Amino acid sequence: MSFETWKIVTSVSAVQVLSECVFFAQGIFASEEKSHEETELDWIRICVPLFYAVTRHISEACWRWIIGGYGGRVTTILGITTVAVSVIAASCQEILAGNVAYVVLGGIGMGLVRLQIKLMKLHSGTAEWKLMGTGVSGIGLSLWPLIACLFIRKLGPKYALLVLSGITLHAVPLALLVKPKAIIACEEDEPQNPDEGITTVSITPAVPETLPSLEQYRMAYQLIEYDSYVVRPPYYVEVLPGIPEESECESDHDQDEENQTAVVLNAEESGVGVNGGVRQEERHGRESHLQEKTRDINLKGIDVLPKGVELTPFTYSLFVANVLLRLGDQFGVAVVISILPVFASQLLPGLRVEETAFLVSLCGFSRTLTELPLVALYQKSGKSQFVFLGGPFFASAGLYLTWISRTLDAMTLASFGLGIGSGAASAALQVLTPRECPRISDAADIVVGVALLATIPLTRIFILKNAIQACFLMAAWIYAAAAITSGFNFRRRT
């Protein structure tokens, strides 16, 4: 793996992992406050990660519309700094409103960072990003709860936030040093799989090489803003609107060649002479056709193809599966990082901070242990049926085990099972969303944000009725719906 890719993976993963670690500290803080004095506002402290996820998803789509693209190093550094400042502000406040302000500010900053993350994924190489990004994030989710536990134990939850925010700032110089390669060929990124519409291509720059590498991608994606092109994902060719089937493209090309041959034969049979003007027009037409063909090949190389196919029920159903997987993943992370410590402290009042951190760390470790082999298996064989069908159901089973846990041993086993299911579902999500159309991605982000926002009042009702376990059931139902929708897609496909 190249040093440039390491810088990219480290810089973008650090912000996500550390922000989630901060939410773990927030969850510990909320559990301690709730154990001291129960009030009707406890649900706000518990729903801190949900507020963050809502703001991040919605702000990401809004930032792309405001900036008109994916931003650059300046916007990335601004987002990282915003996340760090929001954590510092949260560590210095005493009132509950400060937590809400921190969540909103941190979500806005993370939405700005994720714009550049999407662009960096294209530069770093799909295969390398999936494996190394998964590994770095998984190690962070496994180790950072324990490290945060040390800070919380020695300094307390509030000052631990201050230390973690300072560590988050180390991603700023990394973002300054990142210089992604211009365009990376993807002969080894994805195996050719005719069932999923994946083709191996050699990428050729679609714009003059004198421009900076990031500008090449920005100019290509400007075509999308005018509704002329959409990004072609590496999975089913019917997934996103405007993506023609390869067989249709081949048949159209063959039909054009037959028509041209028929015209030439008719001209020769009729004895019509071709003068110099006609030959010049034909030469000009060939050159124009060659230029258009070269442009289409270049755009195809960076996964951009012209529109031409209407939406199908398969497209809608797979989009719904994508949204459900993303919603389940975000809600699952919120459950593990914030709601699980509160639930554990409520169920076992004498539970120590170290034991709570171990539960979260065990979940992150089992998630990584499951996600890495599944992603590697998919890259090698291209088989995703098991990932799509098994992952969400395993996650639902883990959440159900957490719901019925009444002892520390049962909760430990449930955390391990929840991590396995969450890792499998996250692997399925990586298969679906590495190269989405920006408009489809924005729509999915807004849908996920609104859905998470709708779960906050339900969480308040459940917690006030001393039924916090319903949060686990809610995430389990989301994963189950994603698995059923994915199974429906594969049945339609076969």
Q: How many structural domains are formed by the residues? A: 2
Number of strands: 2
Query: How many angstroms separate the termini?
Result: 37 Å
**Name of the top-level CATH class of the largest domain:** Mainly Alpha
Largest sheet: 2 strands, antiparallel
**CATH fold-level assignment of the largest domain:** Growth Hormone, Chain: A
- Would you tell me the overall average pLDDT? 62
Beta strand %: under 5%
InterPro entries: MFS_trans_sf (IPR036259), Proton-linked_MCT (IPR050327)
GO molecular function, one term: monocarboxylic acid transmembrane transporter activity
Keywords: Membrane, Transmembrane, Transmembrane helix
Transmembrane segments: 65-89, 95-117, 129-153, 385-404, 410-431, 443-461, 467-490
Describe this structure in words.
With 494 residues, the chain is mainly alpha-helical. It has two domains: 361 residues, MFS general substrate transporter like domains (Growth Hormone, Chain: A, Up-down Bundle), CATH 1.20.1250; 94 residues, no CATH class. Helices cover 77% and strands 1% of the residues. It has 17 helices and two strands. A two-stranded antiparallel ribbon has the order 1-2. α14 packs antiparallel against α17. The longest helix has 35 residues. It is globular, with a radius of gyration of 25 Å. About 21% of the residues have low confidence. InterPro entries: MFS_trans_sf, Proton-linked_MCT. Keywords: Membrane, Transmembrane, Transmembrane helix. One of its GO terms (molecular function) is monocarboxylic acid transmembrane transporter activity.
